[in-house]
Each structure stands twice: as C-alpha cells, then as structure tokens.
Amino acid sequence: MKRRYILVLGFAAFVLLFALNNPKQEEYVEWAAGTIFQSEGLLQNSAEKHIAAPIIQSSTKTYNLVIFSLYETKNPINGETTITVGLFNQFF
Predict the structure, then answer these.
(1) Where are the domains of the chain?
(2) InterPro entries per the record (predicted)?
C-alpha cells in the first residue's frame, strides 16, 4: 500500500513538473518567427521578426495537453501546415 502511494505521488510530481514547464503560445510565436520563416529565407533582421509575429499568432492553433502542447501553424506563404510539439520549454 505504501509503495502505491509513493508511485502515485511520483506520477503526480512528474505531471506537475511537465505542466509547469509547458511552453506558452507567446514563446512559440517568438521561436517560430526565428525558425519557421527563417527557413524560407525571408527573415533577415529583427524588424522582420516583429512583423512576422502577429502573422504567426493569427495563423496558429494551440492544443494544450497539460504535459505538452501542440502548435499547428499554417504558413501563409506556401499554405503548408507545420505541427510543432512544445515540451519542457523546448520545441520539436
């Protein structure tokens, strides 16, 4: 019985740790402005990143799944959809 409580407590701590480090959409938008559009060769300076941020914000759907998030962004340039996983304040 004691072992079960320890396992439940460990699992709860694990979920809490993941939930607290789940990245926010604002963090994703900042990351995407520097990564997704840059791969298209469009962003050359920080001013262009500030212009891209509202575009990314408006074309992104966020699915918060407690321990991680999914970000679905439709690229307005070529129409492709990119799905990104946010986990531990990192994006994959």
Answers:
(1) 2-91
(2) DUF4359
**Given the structure tokens 């070529």, which residue do they identify?**
78
Question: Can you tell me the distance from the alpha carbon of 54 to that of 44, in angstroms, rounded to the nearest whole number?
Answer: 17
Place of tokens 């321990």: 67
Question: Six-digit token pair at 42?
Answer: 């469009």
Q: What is the pTM of this model?
A: 0.78
SS (H, E, C) 27-70: HHHHHHHHHHHHHCCCCCCHHHHHHHHHHHHHCEEEEECCCCEE
Distance CA(62)–CA(51), nearest Å, equals 20
Distance CA 8, CA 14 (A): 10
Would you write out the chain's pLDDT as a tens digit for each of its 92 residues?
789 999 999 999 999 999 899 999 999 998 988 886 666 665 556 666 677 788 889 999 999 998 999 999 998 778 899 899 999 999 99
